[in-house]
């Protein structure tokens, strides 16, 4: 018998980077029926789930998680066994320019998901109520910035720095409150930076791969010594499925793969991989590295202590950063049509997040 045989799982944000990896995992490695609930923002791409069209265990619902009536109808129709909440505005630089959307989706949207999940949960019989899980996918950024030593544990106090991480912290608090107050069986996961295939090109790793291929300047923020802790997205998807299946209700699990690297180290590795896989006549890619104005409120270092999920649930990352990054660079070389279509749709790769709100976003800040 396969994991989740006969079960239905709602995945919000399933057309995004991590949500699509979760759905690929559920369709390929489990027996779950999947309903992908996604508003299809700029970050979405249904082509990131190549096995979805015509799949008998997959359904797509174009829905905003802030829309209570539509969520209610989906709960009534599909009677899910679990909901994995990945729908979010996820890019720190965009949150600096326009925080309103982040408050709307990440805070109001999560509140709406909780309310509708609670309403549905109350309609279930005792056995199905005990079985139901709401997994909220959050980030290590809620913990703030580390100094040179130490790691984030599940007990590290929240100290978010950006509008993005503050909105995620707010949503985490809501999820835990719905567990404590109403008994809704929730679990929160806080993971580190994901990377891998189907990653929108605004994020560091795909940004540098695509600019390196085009032989454009590789814009490193500040001094390039900020540290992120990298997790291959497919390792993450497998961890999330395990948490839904076996995680303790009300618990928090940090997810990371002990891959701390400075941004400069990451960019240099990408340059070297590109040089090996597709050498340039103009010289080594490292020549393209340029330092640019720092991000405001830029967290210095993230590092995850993943021992709880490793010991309690037996999860281990399979990719090292070296194997995962090599696979990722190769994927971008082999799948140019995926990211070129994003550029054709209007993504221009220009610097954002310098704290100069665009007019249309600024007028929406109190939305
Ligand atoms: P993403 O930006 O790639 O995708 C987000 C998806 O959510 C998109 O498909 C988008 O259309 C959808 N969405 C946005 N607003 C919506 C709304 N109102 N209603 C319905 N759908 C909506 O994000 P991601 O990188 O896949 O991140 C997924 C989750 O994981 C987020 O909650 C994020 O905070 C968290 N997270 C991401 C990382 C990372 O490195 N990418 C690390 C830690 C945590
Ligand atoms: O830690 C988890 C978080 O990781 C998630 O919660 C976020 O959703 C996800 O976007 C990511 O946030 P970061 O801000 O860490 O990721 P980003 O790819 O934007 O930047 C990674 C680092 O690289 C950061 O220190 C800023 C730097 N950077 C980024 C870009 C896009 C550059 O130096 N140059 C760039 O062009």
Give the N-to-C terminal Cα separation: 47 Å
Beta strand %: 15-25%
- The succession of helices and strands, N to C, reads EHEEHEHHHEHEEHEEHEEHEHHHH
Major β-sheet profile: 7 strands, parallel
- Spatial strand arrangement across the major sheet: 3-2-1-4-5-6-10
- Principal-axes geometry comes out as globular
| Number of strand segments | 12
Radius of gyration: 20 Å
Hetero groups in this structure are: nicotinamide-adenine-dinucleotide, 2'deoxy-thymidine-5'-diphospho-alpha-D-glucose
Helix content: 40-55%
Briefly note the structural class of the backbone.
alpha/beta
Low-confidence stretches: 358-367
Number of helices: 13
Mean pLDDT: 97
Description of the molecule:
- The protein is an alpha/beta fold.
- Helix content is 42%, strand content 16%.
- The chain contains 13 helices and twelve strands.
- It has helices at residues 17-29, 68-78, 92-97, 100-123, 126-131, 163-182, 204-214, 233-246, 263-277, 307-313, 321-334, 336-344, 359-362; strands at residues 8-12, 33-38, 58-62, 82-85, 133-139, 186-191, 193-195, 218-221, 227-232, 252-255, 260-262, 289-292.
- The chain has a seven-stranded parallel β-sheet with strand order 3-2-1-4-5-6-10, sandwiched between helices.
- α2 (68-78) runs parallel beside α4 and α7 (204-214) crosses α9 (263-277).
- The radius of gyration is 20 Å and the shape is globular.
- Residues 358-367 have low confidence and may be disordered.
- The site of nicotinamide-adenine-dinucleotide has 30 residues, from α1, α4, β5 and β7.
């Amino acid at each position: 018998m396969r994991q989740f045989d006969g079960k239905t799982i709602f995945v919000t944000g399933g057309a995004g980077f991590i949500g699509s990896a979760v759905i690929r995992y559920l369709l390929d490695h489990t027996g779950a029926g999947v309903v992908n609930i996604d508003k299809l923002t700029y970050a979405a791409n249904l082509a990131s789930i190549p096995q979805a069209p015509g799949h008998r265990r997959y359904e797509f619902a174009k829905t905003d998680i802030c829309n209570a009536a539509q969520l209610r109808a989906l709960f009534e129709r599909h009677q899910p066994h679990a909901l994995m909440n990945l729908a979010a505005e996820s890019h720190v630089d965009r949150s600096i320019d326009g925080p309103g959307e982040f408050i709307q989706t990440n805070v109001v949207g999560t509140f709406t998901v909780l309310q509708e999940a609670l309403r549905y949960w109350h309609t279930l019989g005792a056995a199905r109520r005990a079985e139901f899980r709401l997994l909220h996918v959050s980030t290590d950024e809620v913990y703030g910035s580390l100094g040179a030593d130490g790691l984030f544990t599940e007990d590290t106090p929240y100290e978010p720095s950006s509008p993005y991480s503050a909105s995620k912290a707010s949503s985490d608090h809501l999820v835990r409150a719905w567990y404590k107050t109403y008994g809704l069986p929730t679990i929160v996961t806080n993971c580190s930076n994901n990377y891998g295939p189907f990653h929108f090109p605004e994020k560091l790793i795909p940004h540098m791969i695509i600019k390196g291929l085009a032989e454009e300047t590789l814009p490193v923020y500040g001094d390039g010594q900020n540290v992120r802790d990298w997790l291959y997205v497919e390792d993450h998807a497998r961890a999330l499925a395990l948490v839904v299946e076996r995680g303790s209700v009300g618990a928090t699990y940090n997810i990371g793969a002990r891959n701390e690297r400075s941004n400069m180290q990451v960019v240099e590795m990408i340059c070297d991989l590109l040089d090996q896989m597709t050498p340039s006549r103009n010289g080594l890619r490292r020549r393209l590295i340029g330092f640019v104005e720092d991000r405001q409120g830029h967290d210095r270092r993230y590092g995850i202590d993943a021992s709880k999920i490793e010991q309690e649930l037996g999860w281990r990352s399979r990719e090292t950063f070296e194997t995962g990054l090599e696979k990722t660079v190769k994927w971008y070389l082999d799948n140019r049509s995926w990211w070129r279509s994003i550029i054709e749709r209007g993504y221009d790769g220009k610097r954002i997040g310098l704290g100069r709100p665009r007019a249309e976003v600024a007028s929406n800040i109190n939305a």
